[in-house]
Amino acid sequence: MTTGKDLYQIEEGFWLKGKEHFLDNVDEQCLLAFPQMGEMHGVHSRAEVAATATSVNRWRDLAMKDRQVLEIDDFAIISYRAEVTRADGEPYAALVSSGYVRRTDGWKLAFHQHSPL
């Protein structure tokens, strides 16, 4: 698999899978940059980020469009347009960027950002 395919497969899991996926794929610390301030903005531990994967905020019907990948040595950034349905049935669209660092046990999420459309 290419780096881009690997990263998009991991990224999809953050939308559609649970806490274990987060614990397996988030780096020790991760910078979250969301438009809402407070708990979703700033540097958080892996456990804090994984705690956001609750049944009340899960998604479905994910489409990732306009995919881009930039890989520089052991760091990669992906960017895409996400179109997804919230658990309550409401549609959500955003431009999303995620930064990954390559560790000995694979790629780990170190940065994640949403810009709702």
Please, what is the average pLDDT?
92
Assembly status: single chain
Supply Rg.
Answer: 13 Å
Q: What percentage of the residues does DSSP assign to strands (E)? A: over 45%
- What's the helical proportion of residues? 10-25%
Shape: globular
Spatial sequence of strands, sheet with the most strands: 2-1-6-5-4-3
Q: Distance between termini?
A: 31 Å
Question: Helix count?
Answer: 3
Write down the secondary-structure element order: HHEEHEEEE
| Number of E strands | 6
| Major sheet attributes | 6 strands, mixed
- Structural class, by secondary structure, is alpha+beta
Uncertain spans: none
Task: Give a structural overview.
By secondary structure, the chain is an alpha+beta fold. The protein is 22% helix and 54% strand. It has three helices and six strands. The chain has helices at residues 3-16, 19-25, 46-50; strands at residues 26-33, 41-45, 59-72, 75-86, 91-103, 106-116. The chain has a six-stranded mixed β-sheet with strand order 2-1-6-5-4-3. Strand 1 and strand 2 (41-45) form a beta hairpin. The longest helix is centred in the N-terminal third of the chain and has 14 residues, at 3-16. It starts with a helix and ends with a strand.
